């Protein structure tokens, strides 16, 4: 299964549609009735419901505090698949500048952004669609995708040269988040009853993958008819999202409800990806989420993906298996799984669930 070298139709930048002030969105952005934001049940008390918020202050401190934090993360992973972390050790000024350089990039003249236009082959660069199905219904968003690790894929020339400090800020941001993800992997491993380095070693040790997708959601004249990003679970290992804390948009599916996440300033939103679901044999589960758009405000978010080494088979860790707990998934490399996703585009939890059905037959 080879990925096409180009998109099936000419690319239309959603930002250009938004800035043209069209009163009606084109048909190809209109979701089927059951997929629209108003179709599904929303959380019943929006003022109270939110994903767990965990303060990591002192996680390297005394044993009691560490045990409390471990317990909070364990419960969040098992019951939600999503949580926010505060006092995570990444400089708040770096977070603010990282978000702002991307906002500045997306407001550059279109011809300057087109220099970085991407293709389905790698997705790296400036994009406006996922999946290569001709005639597909599209999401109301543009994005920029780039690689941090492995170093063989890191090419700073593919990163925006403007704003002037963009590459410097992104490099520092990537280094800090790789370190933070490594610390979180230890906590997840301990909570699975494993030695702290088992999960990291299953990912390939230090030879892991890391990449960034910056999402730009322009203002939309008919936000009830479309989505900024369709329902999906993340295909990789673990995601750290730096949200636009002034404009909520991320929704997390919990049972039959969609809960709009209320971001905390300078917090990261952490979520379990499909690869950790596979490695943990579904003790931890990735969770469907989507993004709604706004008629009055644009929105910028940075999704950092921490992934296994791309060419090693990923399957359930043997320490988590037993006669009454057989492996639910056959091993598959992340390269194979990522290509599987890219060909189809976002489709809820059907991608990882289909792997389970394969292994059970």
Summarize the structure.
Keywords: Dioxygenase, Iron, Jasmonic acid signaling pathway, Metal-binding, Oxidoreductase, Plant defense, Vitamin C. By secondary structure, the protein is of the alpha+beta class.
Task: Show unreliable segments.
Answer: none
How do the helices and strands follow one another from N- to C-terminus? HEEHEHHEEHHEEEEEEHEEEEHH
CATH superfamily label: B-lactam Antibiotic, Isopenicillin N Synthase, Chain
End-to-end Cα distance, whole Å, is 22 Å
- Overall average residue pLDDT: 91
Global morphology: globular
Largest sheet: 8 strands, mixed
Helix share, percent: 25-40%
Family: Belongs to the iron/ascorbate-dependent oxidoreductase family.
Pfam families: 2OG-FeII_Oxy, DIOX_N
GO biological process, one term: regulation of jasmonic acid mediated signaling pathway
GO molecular function, one term: dioxygenase activity
């Amino acid at each position: 299964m080879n990925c096409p070298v180009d998109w099936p139709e000419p690319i239309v930048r959603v930002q250009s549609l938004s800035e043209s002030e069209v009163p009606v969105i084109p048909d190809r952005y209109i979701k089927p009735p059951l997929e629209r934001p108003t179709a599904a049940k929303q959380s019943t008390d929006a003022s109270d419901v939110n994903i767990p918020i965990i303060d990591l202050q002192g996680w390297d401190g005394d044993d009691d505090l560490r045990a409390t934090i471990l317990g909070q993360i364990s419960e969040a992973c098992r019951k939600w698949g999503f949580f926010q972390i505060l006092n995570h050790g990444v400089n708040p000024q770096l977070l603010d500048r990282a978000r702002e350089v991307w906002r500045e990039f997306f407001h550059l003249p279109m011809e300057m952004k087109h220099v970085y236009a991407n293709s389905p082959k790698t997705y790296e660069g400036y994009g406006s669609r996922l999946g290569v199905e001709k005639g597909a219904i599209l999401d109301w968003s543009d994005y920029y995708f780039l690689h941090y690790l492995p170093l063989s894929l890191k090419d700073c020339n593919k990163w925006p040269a403007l704003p002037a400090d963009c590459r410097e800020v992104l490099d520092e941001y990537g280094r800090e988040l790789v370190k933070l993800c490594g610390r979180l992997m230890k906590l997840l491993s301990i909570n699975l009853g494993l030695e702290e380095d088992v999960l990291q070693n299953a990912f390939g040790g230090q030879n892991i993958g890391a990449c960034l997708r910056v999402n730009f959601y322009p203002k939309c004249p008919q936000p009830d008819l479309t989505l900024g990003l369709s329902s999906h679970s993340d295909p990789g290992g673990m995601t750290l999202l730096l949200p636009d804390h002034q404009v909520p948009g991320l929704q997390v599916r919990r049972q039959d409800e969609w809960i709009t996440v209320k971001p905390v300033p300078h917090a990261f939103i952490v979520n379990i990806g499909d690869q950790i679901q596979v490695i943990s044999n579904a003790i931890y589960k990735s969770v469907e989420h989507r993004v709604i758009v706004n008629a009055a405000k644009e929105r910028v978010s940075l999704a950092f993906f921490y992934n296994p080494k791309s060419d090693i088979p990923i399957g359930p860790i043997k320490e988590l298996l037993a006669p009454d707990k057989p492996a639910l998934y056959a091993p598959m490399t992340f390269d194979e799984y990522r290509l599987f996703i890219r060909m189809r585009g976002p489709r809820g939890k059907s991608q990882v669930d289909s792997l389970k059905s394969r292994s059970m037959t």
